[in-house]
Design goal:
about 290 residues, alpha+beta, 3-stranded antiparallel sheet, two-stranded antiparallel sheet, 12 helices
């Protein structure tokens, strides 16, 4: 094995973490949640799921139980792809959006069937080691007892709040006295905790066919949304065959559409036509890639 050169060429240096088990996230509390699953005897899938579930609580600016999920997993012998994205409500006909110049960015007409919960269940069932409910313990604790909002998330929260505060339910659950929580402020989400408990104890059933599904559909109906209990009940995550793109001795695997990974594969296909090795490292031509051959 060739010795690694620890003399990094850039002024900004990021040292690797040398450890047997590592969980990397954008939020330390979520990373701790994943590590706690490993400490309980769980595997990498358990850690990833606990991390994702916790991110929905401690980083609500970018994650949520109402989101979608995609996964590519190597089991030691085969690569597996999971498309946990939701479909559009059945009532989303062309006529519903006729006359608009753009799709709505907020409100119920921007909401498809949430697929993340179904992906958590599918991954846990097929590859997880720990009981499904165990994966929710850190997230439920942070939602119930509260957590200190990190500076980066506080800044993003404050940036998004003005455009979302009038969306029904946002101010009630994600604002404090009419504002976004400040950095270092303890934030609790009791309703979120209750929803996570129901998902954990029913293994997602309450979210798609039970009381949570009924509550979501009722809220949509009250505020002009199209999502129904039938839309939620018909949802399922799909195991898919990852797409492969060869590039100069390497193969990049991505989830097929409706995932966006094919865009990266198309970019590599374009780069095949350029002799990048002949360009100086970190030069403008290498970084931007000239449009002319």
């Amino acid at each position: 094995m060739t010795p690694f050169d620890w003399k990094f060429p850039y002024h900004s240096q990021r040292m690797p973490v040398l450890a047997r088990n590592v969980v990397a996230t954008s939020q330390p509390l979520a990373a701790q949640a994943g590590l706690s699953m490993l400490m309980k005897g769980g595997n990498a899938v358990d850690a990833a799921l606990a991390t994702a579930i916790t991110l929905a609580v401690v980083e609500p600016t970018g994650n949520g139980i109402g989101s979608d999920a995609f996964a590519i997993l190597w089991d030691g012998g085969k690569l597996h792809g999971l498309d946990g994205s939701g479909r559009s409500p059945a009532a989303w006909t062309p006529e519903r959006f006729k006359g608009r110049s753009a799709m709505p960015a907020t409100g119920w007409d921007s909401v498809t069937v949430p697929g993340a919960v179904s992906a958590w269940v599918a991954l846990s069932d097929r590859f997880g080691k720990l009981p499904f409910a165990d994966l929710f313990e850190p997230a439920i604790r942070y939602a119930s007892d509260g957590f200190m909002v990190s500076p980066v998330i506080a800044r993003l929260w404050a940036r998004q709040a003005p455009s979302l505060e009038k969306v029904p339910g946002f101010a009630e659950h994600l604002m404090v006295s009419g504002r976004a929580p400040a950095a270092g402020e303890r934030f609790t989400a009791p309703a979120h905790a209750r929803a996570l408990k129901r998902i954990a104890e029913t293994k997602g059933q309450a979210f798609y066919t039970g009381d949570l599904a009924e509550n979501m559909a009722a809220h949509a109906r009250k505020h002009g949304g199209a999502l129904t209990v039938a839309d939620l009940a018909q949802h399922k995550a799909n195991w898919v065959e990852p797409l492969a793109q060869d590039y100069r001795g390497y193969t990049l695997y991505e989830i097929p559409p409706n995932g966006q990974g094919i865009a990266a594969q198309m970019a590599l296909g374009i780069l095949e036509g350029f002799d990048l090795a002949a360009l100086p490292v970190d030069s403008a031509d290498a970084c931007i890639c000239r449009s002319k051959r």
